Amino acid sequence: MVQGRFPVKVDDDSYSIEANMVRLEPAGQPSETVFDDFRALLTRAIQHCLRSNEFLVVELGGWDAPEQPFCLFVVVPDETAGPVSVIETAPDPVGSQFWDPHIVPGRESQSLRAPATPETIDVAPILMIEAISRWGIQPWDVALTFGQR
After folding, report:
1. Strand 84-90 and strand 15-16: pairing?
2. Is the separation of the CB atoms in 16 and 7 below 8 Å?
3. pTM: predicted TM-score of the whole model, two decimal places
4. What is the average pLDDT value for the chain, to the nearest integer?
């Protein structure tokens, strides 16, 4: 059982804390590369977000993590296009063949948007890794944060 971070006020004298049940499973064998393991982790995290209508933020781990760097994945409704997947990141992922054509100088963050199809969802972990790899850190230096949309 994993306890939620924030208590909910029940009445004037008490609070309640929500909890989520987590099923533990034996660890699998590592992949051939750290990239493959990180991609598999982000794929599972994104699939969780799709099932639970949540968003995912990859950021530096630790209690005092800065506001940047970050990489966000979320699916949002769009009146004309239907569900749209959005990946937003900061700082600019300069040097990425996927991101460079879409970088708009002067923006606080950069984003990519596309209809939320199975094909675009499949490439989301790779686009996120492309952005995260520009932070000069290792995959085990990040934290995954989920939130309700």
Report:
1. unpaired
2. yes
3. 0.84
4. 92
